[in-house]
Write a structure and sequence with these properties.
- With 438 residues, the chain is α+β, with helices and mostly antiparallel strands.
- It has eight helices and 24 strands.
- It folds into four domains: 155 residues, 2-Layer Sandwich (Alpha-Beta Plaits), CATH 3.30.70; 86 residues, Glycinamide Ribonucleotide Synthetase, Chain A, domain 4 (Alpha-Beta Complex); 113 residues, OB fold (Dihydrolipoamide Acetyltransferase, E2P) (Beta Barrel), CATH 2.40.50.1010; 42 residues, no CATH class.
- Strands 1, 2, 3, 4, 5, 6, 7, 8, 9, 10 and 24 form an eleven-stranded mixed beta sheet that branches. Strands 12-14-15-17-16 form a five-stranded mixed β-barrel.
- The two termini are 31 Å apart.
- Bound molecules: zinc ion.
- The site of zinc ion has 8 residues, from loops.
- The site of zinc ion (ZN) has 8 residues, from loops.
């Protein structure tokens, strides 16, 4: 007996359809013809969301099996065949990669996975790691998909969620899906451990509008709830399904950093900072403000228009407010490193005194200034007090301490919403995939 890890990346196209996970669903069926058993749930692995040349969501998959020895050639033959048949080779961004590893996953693969979440990796360095471990690597076109595929083999999903994805045949390219939204709302209500299915108004958010084979995906923290919820949804033309274990919504892309001195472009960080400038909206409705760390390093924080109410809450922050910010670093060709905010925890609000005219000591009426250096006068009874001076009042803040998060339609795949409990397996043993409806 031996183990096999089969991973694929970069087969889909943002504009022309396909989805690498659909290819995984087909491969699950084809590989079931071999004397192999899945040794863990199929894994959907999201990598650095800031990679400029990602196809769609920068997602790869890895299938892990146990079975007879000497099946490498057969696995390779089947996987190549599926990639040939389904990849969108005509899209310049689509550069498929296939990695098959027999045996234990080496530490070097785990390192590549972690680096692939935070950095831009070079193909040659990744291929070297694969060669050294004796992995079978097959790349197409510029072969960049090998980076994601090898990273997916190295993925460590200690922290994870699940996504049950229902697929239609690859030939179907309609942007519309026939899904009964009522059953989706019922499923969300019945299985509260699922999330990201509908928005607060009850509109579906888990149904894509692209020409890809995904009909919908139900995300959740409990595998059997997630699958059961997907079974409740009435949808037309389901060809197959997969219950993926995934690093989605785990903040796997975030690196905790101590200060702002070492922000690398294309990485995602979390840091404690203080607001150091008033916030300002720029054209297009994007909100910007500056922050600094205790060493005096500074950065600009940005909340873009699609995050809607998130910006409004952030616009009430003032200089001196202490925050923990989560976000991705944009490219370096701007004066200050810019943190594209994903969420903010308001740790401590600055205390701001504003001068306020006191009430009249005689009648309790409002007072007003008589002019520069002239003191105050009661508007009601005309009382003029020599000692009457504006008093400092602590400004009432509209913003409160605690997390500020964007609405769900602005979440990215790896974004961890605070409503999510930490992931715990609940003894679910499968099934993980099938043909027809679940
Ligand atoms: Zn008065």
């Amino acid at each position: 007996m031996t183990s096999y890890h089969v991973a694929v990346d970069s087969t889909d196209s943002a504009t022309l359809g396909m989805c690498t996970t659909y290819l995984g669903a087909v491969l699950l069926e084809r590989l079931s013809e071999l004397p192999l058993e899945l040794s863990s749930p199929p894994e959907l692995v999201r990598l650095n969301p800031n990679v400029p040349w990602k196809t769609r969501g920068n997602g790869a998959f890895c299938l892990r099996y146990e079975g007879e020895k000497d099946l490498l050639d057969e696995i390779l033959f089947i996987a190549e065949n599926v990639i040939w048949n389904l990849s969108v080779f005509e899209d310049p961004q689509t550069n498929p990669g296939l990695v098959i590893l027999e045996g234990e996953v080496p530490i070097s693969f785990r390192e590549i996975y972690h680096r692939a979440l935070h950095e831009i990796l070079y193909l040659d360095a990744v291929k070297e790691v694969g060669d050294y471990a004796g992995a079978l690597m097959k790349g197409w076109k510029n072969e960049r998909g090998l980076i994601g595929a090898l990273s997916a083999v190295g993925a460590d999903l200690a922290e994870h969620t699940y996504e049950a994805i229902l697929y239609r045949p690859a030939a179907v390219k309609d942007r519309m899906r026939q899904v009964d939204a009522g059953t989706l709302r019922e499923a969300s209500k019945r299985y509260p451990s699922t999330f990201f299915n509908i928005d607060p108004e009850g509109n579906p958010v888990c149904i894509p509008h692209s020409p890809c084979p995904v009909i919908l995906g139900i995300r959740g923290v409990d595998p059997s709830d997630t699958l059961e919820a997907s079974r409740m949804v009435k949808a037309e033309g389901i060809e197959r399904w997969v219950l993926w274990k995934t690093n989605q919504h785990t903040d796997a892309h975030i690196e905790l950093v101590r200060g702002l001195s070492s922000l690398r472009p294309f990485s995602s960080i979390s840091a404690e900072v203080s607001v150091s400038s008033p916030s300002a909206y720029i054209e297009g409705g994007h909100l910007f403000f500056d922050v600094s760390d205790p060493e005096g390093n500074t950065a600009t924080c940005a909340a873009y228009e699609p995050t809607k109410g998130f910006r409004k809450s952030l616009s009430q922050l003032v200089q001196g407010d202490r925050l923990r910010v989560w976000g991705s670093i944009r490219s370096e060709d701007v004066p200050l490193p810019t943190i594209n905010l994903e969420k903010v925890d308001v740790l401590e609000l600055a205390v701001i005194g504003v001068p306020v005219n006191p009430r009249c000591p005689e009648c309790g009426g409002p007072t007003e200034s008589m002019g520069r250096g002239q003191g105050l006068r009661c508007k009601k009874c005309g009382f003029r007090g020599a000692g009457l001076e504006p008093v400092e009042k602590i400004m009432e803040r509209e913003v409160r301490t605690g997390l500020i998060e964007p609405p769900s339609d602005a979440w990215r795949h790896l974004f961890r919403p605070s409503c999510l409990p930490t992931s715990k397996e609940r003894g679910y043993g499968g099934p993980w995939w099938g043909t027809g409806a679940p």
